[in-house]
Amino acid sequence: QVQLVESGGGLVQPGGSLRLSCAASGSIRTIYDMGWYRQAPGKQRELVAVITSGGITTYADSQMGRFTISRDNAKNTVYLQMDSLRPEDTAVYYCNGDILLFSGRRNNNYWGQGTQVTVSS
User: Fold this and answer.
1) Distance between CA atoms of 75 and 25, rounded to whole angstroms?
2) CA dist 98 to 61, 65, 93, Å?
3) What string of pLDDT tens digits covers the 121 residues of the chain?
4) Alpha carbons 63 and 118: distance in angstroms, whole number
5) Cα 47 to Cα 38: distance, rounded to the nearest angstrom
6) Is the dihedral of CA 9, 69, 3, 87 positive or negative?
7) How far is 121 from 12, CA to CA, in rounded Å?
8) Is the dihedral of CA 3, 19, 120, 64 positive or negative?
9) Is the separation of the CB atoms in 98 and 108 below 8 Å?
10) Which contiguous run of DSSP H or E holds residue 50?
């Protein structure tokens, strides 16, 4: 019923930038919070940033000032601009959505398939 598809990952040198996108599609009535999470090998999935439908943002401390989350509500898309990337940012990045369907069902556990970000020289 709902698909979240990420794109934009890849290999980048330390200090470089990447922009991730996540597009949601399906029987969507409203998307509330959208967020980015990441999971490095051997570690738990962690929050990167979240944005509400009204544009209020929250960031993990380690990303503050380097990453910027934004969204285009008309396109059901959330973005993550990542600057000044560090090797420790290497992870699979997942988007998440809190979505209300036309059926009236709401679920905050919609996830994309993930996109790999590797920061290495």
Assistant:
1) 9
2) 23, 25, 17
3) 899 999 999 999 999 999 999 999 999 999 999 999 999 999 999 999 999 999 999 999 887 789 999 999 999 999 999 999 999 999 999 999 999 999 999 999 999 999 999 999 9
4) 16
5) 7
6) positive
7) 8
8) negative
9) yes
10) strand 46-51
Q: Which residue, among 10, 27, 14, 23, has the nearest Cα to 105 in the 3D structure?
A: 27
Residue 52: phi, psi to the nearest 5? -80, 170
Quick one: tokens of 69?
């989350």
Burial of 19 (0-12, 13-18, 19+ CB in 10 A): middle
Specify the DSSP element, H or E, that contains 6.
Answer: strand 2-7
Alpha-carbon span 39 to 28, nearest angstrom: 27
Q: Which of 110, 120, 121 is nearest to 24 (CA)?
A: 110
Cα angle 37, 1, 7 (rounded to 5 degrees) comes to 40
The two three-digit tokens of residue 63, written as one number:
């990303």
Strands 18-26 and 57-59: unpaired
